[in-house]
């Protein structure tokens, strides 16, 4: 089986590629802007015809699209999260119409949740900012493409290599900077929001299962931890793992998205039914992997 992982040098893509390489009888091809990738692919810039010419000789049985932007202005987000999937779908229809496409979406596509009511894949999508809106547009493109495609709507991934552009990675970076100084102060925004965190290793396993599952799959599957966790608890757990001896100061100020989306949790029952998938790692294990993974030898 030939599986092409796009965005293979990114946070999620690297974990997905690593997981796939352990699968017997699988040839893993990587695609991205890195010179180390097998295929030079920049979904934000390449045209459908050129991408089709690149994909045809690779002849993938499955393409897993992990390429995406989580930060930047609206133009950057649209180029990667919306234009990218559209170009990929057009190229696959021309070069590998029988290939399965596994596209990584985001729980941000749902927008604000209702406390104690995990959202199913049938829930209304009401993204509150450019990131969620551009990811939703990408999802619509994939699910209406006519391809054998599935979108994995991923919650808030946590684990080794988490970038500082996301909350867990940013908190870990701040704790490393603070060290064991008892006078250190972490000044953070409002931590009262609830989020659905999922170990990045579980995301990678879900991608593998979606890539290799027989028959057609539902168009969208939620991949999350299945419970809403106070962001404050995540910060305190990570601080404990870091041996932080200073003080955490929380203000009422915070990101616009945190204010608008105070509660988020995905119902993951459909993924269990379709893929036999459930999270295998706890949030504590994910945070330990995040902290241990960033330690210097």
Automatic annotation (TrEMBL):
InterPro entries: Epimerase_deHydtase, NAD(P)-bd_dom_sf. Residues 3-224 form the NAD-dependent epimerase/dehydratase domain. Pfam families: Epimerase. Coiled coil: none annotated. Belongs to the NAD(P)-dependent epimerase/dehydratase family. This is NAD-dependent epimerase/dehydratase family protein.
């Amino acid at each position: 089986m030939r599986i092409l992982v796009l965005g293979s040098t990114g946070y999620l893509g690297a974990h997905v590629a690593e997981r796939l390489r352990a699968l017997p009888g699988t040839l893993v091809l990587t695609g991205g802007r890195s010179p180390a990738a097998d295929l030079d692919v920049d979904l934000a810039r390449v045209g459908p015809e050129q991408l089709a010419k690149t994909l045809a000789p690779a002849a993938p049985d499955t393409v897993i699209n992990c390429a995406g932007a989580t930060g930047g202005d609206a133009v950057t987000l649209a180029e990667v999260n919306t234009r990218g999937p559209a170009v990929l779908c057009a190229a696959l229809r021309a070069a590998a119409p029988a290939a399965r496409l596994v596209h990584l979406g985001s729980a941000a596509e749902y927008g604000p949740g209702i406390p104690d009511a995990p959202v199913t894949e049938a829930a209304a999508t009401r993204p509150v900012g450019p990131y969620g809106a551009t990811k939703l547009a990408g999802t619509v493109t994939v699910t209406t493409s006519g391809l054998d495609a599935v979108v994995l709507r991923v919650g808030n991934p946590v684990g080794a290599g988490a970038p500082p552009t996301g909350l867990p990675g940013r908190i870990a970076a701040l704790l490393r900077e603070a060290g064991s100084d008892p006078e250190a102060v972490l000044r953070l925004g409002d931590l009262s929001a609830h989020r659905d965190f999922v170990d990045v290793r579980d995301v990678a396993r879900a991608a593998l299962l979606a890539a290799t599952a027989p028959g057609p799959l539902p168009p969208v599957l939620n991949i999350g931890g299945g419970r809403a966790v106070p962001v404050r608890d995540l910060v305190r757990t990570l601080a404990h793992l870091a041996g932080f001896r200073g003080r955490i100061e929380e203000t009422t100020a915070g990101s616009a998205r945190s204010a608008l989306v105070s509660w988020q949790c995905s119902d993951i029952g459909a993924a269990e039914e379709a893929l036999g998938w459930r999270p295998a790692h706890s949030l504590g294990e994910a945070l330990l992997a995040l902290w241990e993974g960033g330690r210097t030898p």
